[in-house]
């Protein structure tokens, strides 16, 4: 169980922050600090924080992903909770076994979230079963080490803004071959779109290739 001091709520919504401010400080004896996504990293450095709550209704998924990676690298023991986790978009790549402690959909009440957070504070996790059904140890694990060299090359080309045809020409293969590489790479890293793959690659590929 980690000591609670300050929680950071990363959100562009003042309404949500006000709502949480009316409940959580009394319920959990914490001080809430609201941060715009762009200012969250600075607030982390300046505040003794034990929990980061990210509002995915107002924070871009890519920014949320990058912020969680910063938490993982620089703040050992700090946990992340996602509110308004999307059901229509496959965002399972956000799940990180070292950091993610809670995931809550739009239709989950604050009462239910409150009860779940009580468990999170005891060192447990609260993540919907359907998100972890096909994962190891309750999470979708990162699969960067399982990518082939060619799959990494294709993902790097995505980062440069290349189309499938461009990548095929660069690697002297057919477009259908590139689609196959992308399909396999997407499955390994747990994403379902080019945008999600680019977000993943921005953080992971340079680490894998160093």
Automatic annotation (TrEMBL):
Residue ranges constituting the HTH luxR-type domain according to the UniProt record: 140-205
Recorded superkingdom: Bacteria
Record PANTHER family: DNA-BINDING TRANSCRIPTIONAL ACTIVATOR DEVR_DOSR
Name of protein: Response regulator transcription factor
Keyword annotations: DNA-binding, Transcription, Transcription regulation
């Amino acid at each position: 169980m980690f000591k609670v001091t300050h929680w950071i709520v990363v959100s562009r919504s003042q309404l949500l922050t006000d709502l949480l401010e009316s409940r959580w400080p009394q319920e959990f004896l914490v001080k809430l600090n609201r941060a715009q996504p762009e200012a969250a990293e600075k607030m982390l450095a300046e505040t003794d924080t034990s929990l980061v709550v990210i509002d995915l209704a107002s924070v871009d998924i890519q920014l949320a992903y990058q912020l969680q990676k910063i938490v993982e690298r620089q703040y050992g023991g700090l946990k992340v909770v996602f509110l308004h986790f999307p059901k229509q978009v496959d965002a399972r790549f956000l799940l990180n076994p070292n950091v993610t402690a809670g995931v809550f959909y739009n239709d989950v009440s604050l009462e239910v979230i409150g009860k779940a957070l009580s468990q999170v504070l005891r060192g447990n996790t609260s993540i919907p079963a359907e998100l972890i059904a096909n994962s190891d140890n309750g999470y979708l694990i990162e699969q960067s080490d399982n990518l082939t060299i060619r799959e990494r090359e294709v993902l790097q080309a995505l980062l440069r803004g290349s189309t499938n045809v461009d990548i095929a020409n660069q690697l002297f293969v057919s477009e259908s071959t590139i689609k196959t590489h992308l399909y396999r790479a997407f499955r390994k890293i747990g994403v379902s779109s080019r945008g999600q793959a680019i977000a993943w690659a921005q953080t992971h590929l340079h680490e894998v290739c160093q």
